[in-house]
């Protein structure tokens, strides 16, 4: 099965360019061929994940096997500490499979190695330069993420010194998602209101200029699916 773009007309390209220039954010619907998007979604549902969060001022990886070994009371206490620390500080809780890093180490499954190679091909990077107008884009890193009920990523702007992040991207891989389930890519307005929010639509590439204040709203306990996506940054060398 070949990894290829879906149809993207000249009119759609121009509309995306215009929206990015005006707001710094846009969605490219049906970015990939539908059959390949479904293949990625099925592969994502089977992928091994660890859980990531923050402790103090640093990132923490929590191996799935270690979490599974915890007694229910300890697991609940850990979750409560994470939630409490999000009240007044930067915090997140979600599952991660670091496909770019594993690809670099030659340790990732073929489906994700192929995807990372595609994201770093001239075909994809050229399209991103064309849509964003950012000629310095030269690579795309990537992670596979899974947001389950109570998972979240609170306000941040993706800026990191020396990383040369021009745009962030999110490729949605959940076949169906309801707004009521949360997990929205939320953009924060200067007036303290929600400026806009993107639903994690299937086979849709969301783009946002760095830095842009945004968050992923908490996934509802009633969510009927897991929020699966490939996320990363379009970066300069």
Describe the protein's architecture and organization.
- This protein is α+β, with helices and mostly antiparallel strands and 237 residues long.
- It has helices spanning 10-23, 34-46, 64-69, 72-85, 99-104, 110-119, 122-132; strands spanning 25-29, 50-55, 58-62, 92-97, 139-140, 143-147, 152-156, 165-172, 185-188, 194-198, 204-209, 214-216, 227-235.
- It is built from 7 helices and 13 strands.
- A hairpin with a 5-residue loop joins strand 9 (185-188) and strand 10.
- The radius of gyration is 18 Å and the shape is globular.
- The two termini are 31 Å apart.
Give the helices and strands, then pairings.
Layout: H1 10-23, E1 25-29, H2 34-46, E2 50-55, E3 58-62, H3 64-69, H4 72-85, E4 92-97, H5 99-104, H6 110-119, H7 122-132, E5 139-140, E6 143-147, E7 152-156, E8 165-172, E9 185-188, E10 194-198, E11 204-209, E12 214-216, E13 227-235
């Amino acid at each position: 099965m070949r990894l290829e773009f879906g149809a993207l007309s000249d009119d759609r390209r121009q509309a995306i360019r215009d929206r990015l220039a005006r707001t710094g954010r846009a969605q490219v619907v049906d970015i990939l061929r539908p059959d390949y998007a479904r293949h990625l979604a099925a592969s994502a549902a089977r992928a091994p994940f660890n859980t990531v969060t923050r402790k103090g001022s640093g990132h923490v990886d929590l191996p799935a096997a270690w979490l599974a070994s915890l007694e229910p009371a300890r697991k609940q206490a850990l979750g409560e500490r994470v939630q409490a620390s999000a009240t007044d500080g930067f915090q997140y809780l979600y599952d991660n499979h670091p496909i770019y890093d594993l690809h670099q180490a030659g340790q990732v499954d073929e489906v994700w190695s192929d995807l990372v190679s595609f994201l770093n091909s001239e075909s994809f990077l050229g399209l991103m330069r064309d849509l964003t107008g950012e000629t310095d884009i030269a690579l795309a890193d990537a992670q596979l993420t899974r947001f389950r009920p109570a998972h979240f990523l609170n306000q941040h702007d993706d800026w990191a010194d020396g990383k040369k992040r021009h745009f962030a991207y999110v490729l949605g891989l959940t076949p169906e998602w309801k707004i009521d389930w949360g997990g929205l890519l939320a953009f924060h307005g200067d007036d303290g209101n929600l400026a806009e929010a993107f639903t994690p639509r299937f086979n849709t590439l969301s783009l946002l200029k760095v830095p842009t204040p945004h968050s992923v709203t908490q996934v509802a306990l009633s969510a009927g699916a897991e929020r699966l996506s490939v996320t990363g940054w379009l970066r300069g060398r």
